[in-house]
Amino acid sequence: MALQTNPPTAPQAELSFPVTGMTCASCVRRIEKALSKVDGVQEASVNLATEKVTVVFDPSVASAQHMQAAVEKAGYGVRDLAQQKADYTVGDLPQTAPSSNTAATDSPALAEDPQDLERQREIDDLQRKWTVR
User: Fold this and answer.
1) 15 near 71, Cβ under 8 Å?
2) Three-class DSSP category at 6
3) 12-20 and 89-91 beta bridge pairing
4) Is the pTM higher than 0.90?
């Protein structure tokens, strides 16, 4: 009788980075599809509201530059990827990622993220322009 063993799993890394130029659910799908075509990418998830992409990938096959090129080829921009790629983690990832909402309330430094501040300024500016006095 043959003993079945699980095949060795490739190391996984997770990378999140901001994407610019998204306006609708079709944009989300285009970016996810473009990233899924990159060799080594196992999962790509785009959040339209936060304008961020989270990618689970094999770092020995795919790189941040490959993912950036795929997003840009699809017609969207990538912001601050050079800084973000140093933050990804390699190893066994949990099946469910912890909620980012809990991290934001635990650390005041996350509330002062330059990208979040820039986005809030943009929202405030648009709100001022549309406010009828």
Assistant:
1) no
2) coil
3) antiparallel
4) no
Q: Is 87 exposed, middle or buried (0-12, 13-18, 19+ CB in 10 A)?
A: exposed
**Looking at this protein, which amino acid is placed at residue 78?**
V
* Run means of pLDDT, 10 residues per run, the chain, 133 residues: 54 88 92 93 92 91 90 88 53 45 44 72 79 64
Pick the CATH number of 12-92 from 3.40.190.10, 3.30.750.24, 3.30.70.100, 3.30.390.50: 3.30.70.100
Task: Return the closest-CA partner of residue 45 out of 116, 111, 100, 123.
Answer: 100
How many CA atoms within 13 Å lie on the side-chain side of 82?
Answer: 0
